[in-house]
Design a protein that fits this description.
The chain is built from seven helices and 46 strands. The strands form eleven sheets. Strands 8, 10, 12, 13, 14, 16, 17, 20 and 22 form a nine-stranded mixed sheet that branches. Strands 4-3-2-5-6-7 form a six-stranded mixed sheet, sandwiched between helices. Strands 37-36-38-39-40 form a five-stranded antiparallel sheet, with no helix packed on it. A hairpin with a 5-residue loop joins strand 38 (703-707) and strand 39. Helix 1 packs parallel to helix 6 and helix 3 (152-164) runs parallel beside helix 4 (197-217). It is elongated, with a radius of gyration of 50 Å. It starts with 11 loop residues before the first strand and ends with a strand.
Length: 810
């Protein structure tokens, strides 16, 4: 790297998230970082063309080397062929290259130990179709051209030669060999290794060691996969450890290793898992079934690139793909933010490559004609998350000797901010700082809630370093993050070393809120200007989620000379802002100093749908309904109580004459509607007067006894005015008197009624008379005593009451 000295201005170069590529390279080591020198953030002349990485996952060159020796049964060879097709069709980068090589031995004239069925082909749309066809040649053994033995050295040599010919690709691309075999080294009948069987075997083992050393020197990894019971495990281990030991990350399991399965029936699944480990991708296992059937496989939210592979065995099987929303996706082209490409439709393995897939459960529908439905079809997904990084430095322009906090968060290409820590389970992060004037050093980034990290599990990885005082030139900061299936887009963060004595210091704070589209977010800017002249600042929005439209006000902002100022500001969201986490950050820059970034802050804003009418008023509506219900119940109870108080049922009316009871009539239930009982006095010719209840129109011309809501009894004689009635006391009724008995007692002072309205009755001692009916009744006057008379009805007993008490409670 070329270093430049800019005097007191130290250029802070690339802060860079992630791995250098999907696999290690000889120059980069176990987790090779990428390094990019940077210019000042926001400077008008800055160009990001050279620094921006290519879209999509990083490529790799790989060879699938398949054992075709005589020891394999035809079904084993067919399964090896399908496993090789799974790798070539399932590769997620269209910039990768693949070659397919079969191997056996060379024992007689015309034979070769290797058969290169597919040359090194770029795995784009056309290349994958070609690979789908040529890989099927593995299933055809020509004994005239390939011998029955197992020549590992020749197989490794052929693969290494093809992966390294033409020089290194730019940028350097990892090189990997996946070797499938069911046995052990067998060159006993191969003349090129010696004159007798024992010599040939020992020479073959020595030659294999030499070829592995060649692979190691060329940076070619070897991943052996054995199956069956005749496997030489020690030989497979030696091949894995003899090749290049680089890895795509520091994650355990990404360094080359051998693997053995019980039979060829397991190699398709095992080989894809091996491929994922070598490529730092992940495998999602789906379901299996015979056509016709619906198979499913789940792609997580963190995935940005993937392939759905369908091991259908029979080209007659037809496949249709549906996204998690239930929509049929195209075999080629773009749809709802994703890009699709199907290959291998006419082969035993079909694959759908997807860029920016919709997360969730995908459905794969399989159909086949009669006679082609006897084999189970399996679906899997191989995927990788290529994340965009948001990196902030605090302070944004550090001085020599100053402590710097580095904070990193991630989002997908769709703009989805990663907020679920489970999606980054097992991730480790660190950073390395190097530059002129000091020795390189490393520090950790963590999301564990321990200082300087603010909160554990918030998917913000934080660390600190102190910029050495001896730094004299440009410096570079590189972050490394290692996790299965996760790589970085390597976007740099632009920054500049600040002057030794800060002219301006600024601090941004933005509310962490939930808002609706069209809403506003508030924040504050605290700025101190130590200069003798004012400075003009402006707010800048960075790394916004695609489709987000934000405006910030006020801008520009003036920082007065020699003063500290607090400036409130607002961010306004457009009405069409998409719902979800609002990514990106806000920066404040000094416009008079080349847009030097003074401070940055993340936008922790969640955009949700605006509330409905019911959301706003449901409490008031339900509270009002409850109050109306309670009021209705109270009113109902009071009306019922009043009705009961006015009811005259059970009251007995006695008709008296000269202190004698002539007749009695008891009010029955239903006869006192509205608290009024209407009656007449019948005087039959030659008979005693009698009381009789009346209803209907006749009631308007009859006598009426009623009770008020307060319990008071009133008598309205026919054609006369109302007079109060006290139970047990006679009241005038034409030529007769009426005595009311029965009910509950209510106390009332006698002075409450004027003497002119008080009922008057005979004040006579007890006497007894007989009425026409022969019944006997008792009555009470105002003075103590009793009176007994006979009448046509039954008698009723009453007790004498003083002038201050009468019975009105019913």
């Amino acid at each position: 790297m070329q270093w430049t000295n800019k005097g007191s201005a130290l250029l802070l170069a690339g802060v860079l998230l992630g791995l250098s590529g999907p696999l290690g390279t000889p120059a980069a080591g176990a987790a090779g970082p990428s390094r990019t020198a940077l210019t000042a953030a926001g400077s008008p002349g800055a160009s990001r063309t050279a620094a921006d990485p290519a879209e999509g996952p990083d490529p790799l060159d790989f060879a699938v080397v398949v054992d075709q020796s005589k020891s394999l049964a035809d079904k084993d060879l067919a399964r090896e062929t399908e496993a090789a097709a799974l790798l070539s069709q399932g590769e997620i980068s269209e910039r990768s290259r693949a070659t397919i090589i079969g191997f056996g031995s060379s024992e007689k004239s015309g034979q070769s130990p290797v058969s290169e069925v597919c040359p090194l082909i770029v795995a784009d749309a056309a290349g994958r179709e070609r690979l789908s066809k040529c890989v099927q040649q593995l299933g055809v053994r020509d004994e005239a051209r390939i011998g029955p033995g197992t020549d590992f050295p020749a197989a490794v040599r052929q693969a290494v030669t093809r992966l390294t010919e033409g020089g290194a690709r730019t940028p350097a691309v990892p090189k990997v060999v996946f070797l499938l075999t069911d046995g052990k080294l067998d060159v006993a009948d191969s003349p090129e290794y010696g004159t007798d069987r024992d010599t040939r075997q020992s020479n073959g083992a020595r030659r294999l060691t030499e070829e592995l050393a060649r692979a190691r020197a060329a940076g070619v990894q070897i991943w052996p996969l054995g199956f069956g019971s005749e496997i030489d495990r020690s030989a497979l281990t030696a091949m894995a450890e003899g090749g290049y030991r680089g890895a795509c990350s520091d994650v355990p399991g990404s360094v080359p290793r051998m693997r053995v399965v019980g039979s060829s029936a397991e190699i398709d699944k095992a080989l894809q898992e091996t491929f994922a480990a070598a490529r730092c991708a992940r495998i999602a296992q789906g379901t299996v079934g015979k056509p016709p059937a619906d198979l499913t496989v789940t792609i997580p939210p963190i995935a940005t690139d993937g392939s759905l592979t369908v091991a259908k065995h029979d080209p007659k099987v037809r496949v249709t793909y549906y996204d998690p929303a239930g929509r049929k996706v195209p075999v080629r082209g773009e749809f709802d933010g994703s890009t699709f490409e199907v290959s291998g439709q006419d082969g035993p393995v079909e694959a759908l490559r997807v860029k920016d897939p919709l997360p969730g459960r995908w459905r794969v529908h399989i159909e086949a004609p009669e006679g082609h439905r006897d084999r189970e079809v399996a679906v899997r997904a191989i995927w990788q998350g290529r994340l965009r990084s948001d990196v902030t430095l605090d302070p944004a322009s550090p001085r020599a000797g100053e402590k710097v906090a580095v904070q990193v968060r991630m989002q997908t290409r769709r703009g989805v901010v990663i907020t679920d820590p489970e999606q980054l389970a097992g991730l480790t992060a660190s950073a390395e700082v190097s530059g002129a004037g000091f020795a390189p050093f490393s520090f950790k980034l963590a999301d564990d809630g321990r200082a300087p990290d603010a909160k554990a599990g918030d998917v913000r990885f934080t660390g600190t370093f102190t910029l050495p005082a001896a730094a004299t030139g440009d410096l570079e900061l590189v972050t490394r993050m290692a996790a299965p299936g996760i790589t970085s887009d390597k976007r740099p963060v632009h920054a500049r070393r600040g002057p030794d004595v800060p002219v301006l210091t600024a601090g941004l704070a933005v509310d962490r809120v939930t808002v609706h589209p069209g809403g506003t977010v508030h924040g504050t800017l605290d700025v101190t200007n130590n200069d003798s002249t004012p400075h003009t600042l402006r707010f800048a929005l960075q790394d916004q989620t695609p489709g987000a439209e934000l405006t910030v006000a006020p801008t520009p902002v003036t920082a007065p000379a020699g003063h500290s100022t607090r400036v409130p500001f607002t961010l306004t969201l457009a009405a069409g802002t998409a719902l979800g986490e609002l990514g990106g950050k806000i920066a404040v820059v000094d416009t008079g100093d080349g847009d030097t970034v003074l401070d940055t802050a993340f936008l922790d804003v969640l955009v949700v749908a605006p509330p409905t009418w019911w959301d706003r008023w449901w409490k008031a509506v339900t509270g009002g309904a409850a109050a109306v219900l309670v009021l209705g119940v109270v009113i109902g109870i009071r009306l019922l109580a009043r009705r009961r108080r006015r009811d005259l049922t059970g009251i007995t009316l006695e008709l008296h004459e000269d202190g004698r009871s002539l007749h009695a009539l008891t009010v029955r239930k239903g006869q006192s509607a509205g608290g009024t009982f209407s009656f007449t006095v019948d005087e039959p010719y030659g008979g005693a007067p009698m009381l009789r209840s009346v209803r209907g129109s006749a009631a308007s011309t009859a006598h009426a006894l009623r009770r008020t809501g307060s319990g008071e009894l009133l008598l309205r004689p026919r054609g006369g005015g109302q007079v109060p009635v006290r139970p047990g006391e006679p009241v005038g009724l034409g030529e007769h008197e009426l005595v009311v008995r029965g009910g509950r007692t209510t106390t009332r002072r006698g002075g409450d009624l004027p003497w002119s309205r008080r009922p008057r009755g005979p004040r006579t001692p007890r006497r007894t008379g007989s009425g026409p009916g022969g019944d006997t009744g008792t009555g009470t006057g105002r003075d103590p005593g009793t009176a007994t008379g006979a009448g046509p009805g039954s008698g009723a007993a009453g007790s004498a009451g003083g002038p201050d008490t009468y019975d009105v409670n019913f």
